[in-house]
Amino acid sequence: MMLGLQGSGKTTSSAKLAVKLKKEGKNPLLVGCDVYRPAAIKQLQTLGSQINVQVYAEENCTDVQSIIQHALDFAKQNGNNVLILDTAGRLQIDTDMMAELLLIDKIFNPQEKLLVIDAMTGQESVNVAENFDAQLNLTGLVLTKLDGDSRGGSALSVVYCTKKPIKLTGTGEKLSALEDFYPDRMATRILGMGDIVSFVERAKEVFDENEAKKMQEKLKKAEFTFDDFLNMQRQMKMFGSIDQILGMLPGMNIKKEDRELISHEGEKQLKRIEVFIQSMTPEERANPKLMNSSRKKRIASGSGIPLHDINIYIKQFDQMRTMMKGMNQMKGMFGKMGGMGLQKMMQQMSKFK
After folding, report:
1. Which letter, b or e, does each residue of 11-43 get, where b requires 16 or more Cβ atoms within 10 Å of its Cβ?
2. pLDDT tens per residue, range 303-328
3. Is the pTM higher than 0.85?
4. CATH of segment(s) 205-335
């Protein structure tokens, strides 16, 4: 049973939870219980189609108890083993909303009652959590919008006041961006120390090991193409925004304005490079050596990017290929020399003043 005020991210969190449960081998069913907010059911159905999860809804029915009972019957017939109830929210807590939620709780006795709270609202989230918990005896909390400027300091207050655990955290707009809550990682985030463990876990999810090995071999031989660069950039997009990546790296205690500027400019440049590469022919993307002045002019005209910038991108790309090849050659040389050979070389170098 998903609970929360309007704007907290409840419906989106319901869909994200369905994605997470699917990964764990469950067969979830999303149930549209918000019969008051315009287009609430349509939003849930749209999200369900995006993640390939069934949505049960009765668009012309306002009897929420009847909808849930029918959803239970539907789940039994179709093999769904988890129901996610996207209940109605309000701009503020009122008696009508709470009475409806209490009836659902009493009649259907959900195993989990998760309150979705917005990390950006700060201490106001404490009041919301206390009210919901007093009435419904929550089993846990979902903290959303942790990809924003907030480090999640309100989490400490909410847990302290309700004595209920934070079970899940929303860390981005993507429907896969819902993670289990780890107190130690939240502590390092609050202290501005990043979250390197989550960074590594996200990398394992996004990057394919076999593809990475193939890419490494290409870099060794200086066979890295514009197609490879485009694929790498697309994988980075799956990893998250530049803003998110900066937030997970330790020692990146950057001011909000500076971080937003870096993220905005970085995303803009990456988009321009993507347009530049997509304006090439398949042959040009596969063979960077084909780039001559006439081809550059055609790409500049087709992409709307000045020729000067096209030259800079190609030069930087060539420098990257050369640098990577050089690094691998140095690595091979040191490997052949062995420990003693390297030690002798360092001793000789130390004689130069």
Report:
1. bbbbbbbbbbbeeeeeebbbbbbbbeeeebbeb
2. 899 999 999 988 888 887 777 666 55
3. no
4. 1.10.260.30
